[in-house]
């Protein structure tokens, strides 16, 4: 068998075999094959190879076992009736994680206060540089000196903790839950697309 | 998946993935049933004689475990094949390190095709099988992905870890070798 000189047609033969060519290309290719003995013979060879490969015994695959081993979906609310089993545990864990994070945050702040000694309450700390020009000094620290422009005040009044979920605005709570959703116990497994493309510019042999 | 559920049966892979991500576990069943056998055949074609089902299951678990990073730039099946191929390579390395490797190594010509003598009935198919065994492993893998799985060169390149151009060269070299061996 010689090779047809029409490389474009030869390239379409596997797709013609699988019926994946668009209609226009399929008709065009079928018309070519009908008039080209080389392409007809090549298509027949491909068909025989496929038949031989299809004759291989399929490995025994227990699809139910695979499904059972899959991780649970992330369980965001869906319109099409999600199963209760998939939704409830995830929501419980998310809320529990949120409360835990807030509790830890509220516990850590008093500890910081103890370390730095008695000082200004964190939720109303105001350093007015009109009183202490040029620098604002945090009490009983060693070297923690923060230069500030004269006439400005560094206000930390927004630093609050320990108030529970009610202290969070809706958007903050949503952002927190979203961040929790993105946490993964296992790293992503999607392979880098075509990693050899960086180092292989031409391919002329077998690897 | 309930038998005859047209919503799931007619859905594309991308639609099923989106449904699963929204919490519909039936979509996962549909995806597994759609692709598991093809992945298993591919793993077998790489020469793995034991542990095929484990590799297939692991490939699905890993794929579903990182679906959020699946960008949809390739077909879901291509992604599964790519993961499965890496798992087979890892398995071979670990078996080799443990001196338990009874599997075919990357550079060997022998594959599962050598074990098909008993199941290949006709003389024509037997000759075809022998012609396949004479291809290099890479030629054979590319040729089978193109002819049997109908993958494009881009998809083959993603699975095998090469370029589209190299995949095209491997395919045509394999086809020429097949023609020469079969004297057609």
Q: How large is the share of residues in beta strands of chain A?
A: 5-15%
Return the CATH class of the largest domain in chain B: Mainly Alpha
| CATH architecture call of the largest domain in chain B | Orthogonal Bundle
Instruction: Using the coordinates shown, work out and report the CATH topology of the largest domain in chain B.
Output: Rna Polymerase Sigma Factor, Chain: A
Overall tally of structural domains of chain B = 2
DSSP helix fraction of chain A? 40-55%
Gap from first CA to last CA of chain A: 28 Å
Major β-sheet profile of chain A: 2 strands, antiparallel
Computed Rg of chain B: 18 Å
> What is the H/E order of chain B?
HHHHHHHHH
Alpha-beta content class of chain A: mainly alpha
H/I helix tally of chain B: 9
Strand-and-helix sequence of chain A, N→C? HHHHHEEEEH
DSSP strand (E) fraction of chain B? under 5%
Number of domains of chain A: 2
Distance between the termini of chain B: 46 Å
Written account of the structure:
With 207 residues, chain A is mostly helical. Chain A has two domains: 7-59; 88-181, no CATH class. Chain A has helices spanning 7-18, 23-35, 37-54, 63-69, 84-116, 170-182; strands at 126-128, 135-137, 145-147, 153-155. In chain A, strand 2 and strand 3 form a beta hairpin. In chain A, helix 1 (7-18) crosses helix 2 and helix 2 crosses helix 3. Residues 100-111 of chain B have low confidence and may be disordered. Chain B has 184 residues and is mainly alpha-helical. Chain B folds into two domains: 1-104, RNA polymerase sigma factor, region 2, helix turn helix motif (Rna Polymerase Sigma Factor, Chain: A); 107-184, Arc Repressor Mutant, subunit A, CATH 1.10.10. The longest helix of chain B has 22 residues, at 76-97. Chain B has nine helices and no strands. The chains are: A mainly alpha (207), B mainly alpha (184). At the A-B interface, helix 1, helix 3 and helix 4 of A face helix 2, helix 3, helix 4, helix 5 and helix 6 of B.
């Amino acid at each position: 068998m010689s090779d047809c000189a029409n490389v474009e047609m030869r390239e379409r033969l596997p797709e013609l075999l699988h019926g994946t060519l668009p209609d226009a290309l399929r008709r065009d290719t079928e018309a070519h094959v009908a008039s080209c003995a080389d392409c007809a013979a090549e298509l027949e060879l491909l068909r025989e190879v496929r038949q031989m490969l299809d004759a291989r015994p399929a490995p025994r695959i227990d699809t139910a076992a695979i499904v059972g081993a899959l991780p649970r979906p992330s369980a965001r609310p869906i319109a099409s009736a999600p199963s209760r089993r998939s939704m409830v545990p995830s929501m419980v864990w998310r809320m529990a994680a949120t409360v835990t994070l807030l509790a830890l945050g509220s516990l850590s702040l008093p500890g910081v206060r103890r370390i730095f000694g008695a000082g200004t309450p964190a939720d109303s700390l105001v350093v007015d540089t009109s009183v202490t020009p040029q620098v604002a000094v945090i009490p009983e620290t060693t070297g923690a000196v923060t230069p500030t422009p004269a006439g400005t005040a560094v206000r930390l009044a927004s630093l609050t903790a320990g108030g529970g979920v009610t202290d969070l605005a809706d958007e903050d709570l949503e952002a927190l839950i979203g961040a929790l959703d993105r946490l993964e116990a296992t790293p992503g497994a999607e392979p880098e697309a075509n990693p050899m493309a960086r180092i292989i510019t031409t391919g002329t042999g077998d690897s | 998946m309930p038998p005859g559920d047209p919503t799931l049966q007619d859905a594309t892979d991308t639609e099923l993935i989106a449904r699963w991500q929204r919490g519909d576990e039936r979509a996962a069943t549909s995806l597994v049933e759609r692709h598991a056998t093809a992945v298993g055949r591919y793993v077998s074609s790489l020469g793995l004689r034991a542990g095929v089902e484990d590799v297939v299951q692991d490939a699905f678990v890993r794929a579903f475990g990182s679906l959020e990073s699946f960008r949809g730039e390739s077909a879901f099946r291509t992604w599964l094949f790519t993961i499965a191929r890496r798992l087979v390579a890892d398995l071979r390395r670990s078996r080799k390190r443990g001196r338990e490797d009874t599997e075919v190594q990357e550079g060997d010509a022998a594959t599962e095709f050598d074990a098909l003598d008993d199941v290949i009935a006709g003389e024509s198919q037997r000759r075809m099988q022998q012609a396949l065994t004479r291809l290099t492993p890479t030629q054979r893998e590319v040729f089978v992905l193109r002819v049997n799985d109908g993958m494009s060169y881009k998809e083959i390149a993603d699975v095998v870890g090469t370029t589209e151009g190299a995949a095209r060269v491997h395919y045509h070299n394999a086809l020429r070798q097949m023609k020469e061996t079969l004297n057609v």
